[in-house]
Fold this sequence. Notes:
The protein is mostly helical. The chain has helices spanning 3-23, 28-48, 53-67, 69-75.
Amino acid sequence: xxxxxxxxxxLMLIVGSELAIRITKMEWYKKQVLINLIxxxxxxxxxxxxxxxxxxxxPISILYVLAHLNDFKKMT
Length: 76
């Protein structure tokens, strides 16, 4: 792995953990909006970076499920 990739990955983990801490203290509708914005940002990164997109598609899927988990619970 290249050094740049490891630096980007570590920064994403740091920012992600900080966001996770802040998200847990929010109301549910704010969480859903914030997670949707993160999904959009990751989708833009996946579109504009060819080699990095393979690492971003699965977090987008996981975040989408997390963002709409409350909706899934209401349907059942």
